[in-house]
Amino acid sequence: MSSDTTTSPPRAETRSTRQRISALLAENGALVGLLVICLAMFIATPEFLTARNLLNVGNQAAVVAILAFGVTLVIVAAGIDLSVGSVAALSAIGSGWIAATGLPGVLGLVGGPVLGMLAGLVSGLAVAYGRLPSFIATLAMLSVARGLTLVISGGRPVLMPPEINWLGAEIGPVPVPILVMLVMFAITAFVLNRTVFGRSLYAIGGNHEAARLSGLPVKRITARAYALSGLFAGIAGLVLAARLESAQPQAADTYELDAIAAVVIGGASLAGGRGKATGTLVGALVLAVIRNGLNLLNVSAFWQQVVIGLVIALAVGADVLRRRVS
């Protein structure tokens, strides 16, 4: 008789433990996935976990991660930014053009990100005040920015001054792009977690109408989010150009897809209201690790595109499933 009365509590405790484990995996799924992928790559090629190769992975992830941090701000507010790759190229070309005119290279270092911020602001104003769908507004900016890049450069690469090229150098054994990526990560995390602006982005993404009725300046905050996304794209463009020591008119082509993928892989929701800087960083590292590992395994670049596409599809599918369950 006494044994029958003690069977229910353990079951309740088991269910609670399973719920905690499920919640933990849901919250840190991207990190778990990254660790699993790293383990698989190490088993397939021990060269993967060498210090030199890991620094190379971080260097490869830097540009996409910086772009993705800016995109995270937009996606948290239930928007999308398809223009960041083209804006990055435009910013780099603009910086090189400023230096080519004989002006101090420092002006190019500042002018590129400012140009990116202005491009993002135009998209943000079109979305917030022009009421254009974010997909359409940023798709238009993608075309405009790429066209301006070709017009300014004449379709030719533009050399970058030393004041910018240091962004592609190394400090000791650590590539500068990794350090820039970490700084931008810290800024993004601070904005999202410690500022009124960041909390407002979550509120807008969670329920746009409720945020408006509560008194938040939704249009102004939305425009600022896109402006910051453009600023981040400008910085990413400079880092990419510094690594190549020249700004290429076709640089960062399709990088916007990788940036969006990194944000979604990191656990953000395309419906808005969910996302964090840590997840985005992990998402960018996942993409870089997959590409790096496949390169070490001598997998064709064509098949690499197939694998990356499948990873993106799985990440978006997981987001859809998560929203249905919640």
Residues in helix, %? over 70%
From the alpha carbons, calculate the radius of gyration and give it in angstroms.
Answer: 22 Å
The global form is globular
Described by strand count, sense and barrel closure, the largest sheet is:
2 strands, antiparallel
Unreliable stretches covering 5 or more consecutive residues: 1-8
**Number of H/I helices:** 14
Order of helices and strands: HHHHHHEHEEHHHHEHHH
Let me know the number of strands. 4
Strand order of the largest sheet: 1-4
| N-end to C-end Cα span | 40 Å
Average pLDDT for all residues: 90
Q: In terms of structural class, how would the helical and strand content be classed?
A: mainly alpha
Strand percentage = under 5%
Keywords: Cell inner membrane, Cell membrane, Membrane, Transmembrane, Transmembrane helix, Transport
Organism: Actinopolyspora biskrensis
InterPro entries: ABC_transp_permease
Subcellular location: Cell membrane
What does this structure look like?
The chain is an all-alpha fold. It has a domain at about 65-260. The chain is built from 14 helices and four strands. It has helices spanning about 10-25, 30-45, 50-75, 85-100, 105-130, 135-155, 160-165, 175-195, 195-205, 210-215, 220-245, 255-265, 275-295, 300-325; strands spanning about 160, 170, 175, 245. The strands form two sheets. A two-stranded antiparallel sheet has the order 1-4. Strands 2-3 form a two-stranded antiparallel ribbon. Strand 2 and strand 3 form a beta hairpin. The longest helix has 27 residues, at about 220-245. The protein is globular and about 65 Å long. The two termini are about 40 Å apart. Residues about 1-10 have low confidence and may be disordered.
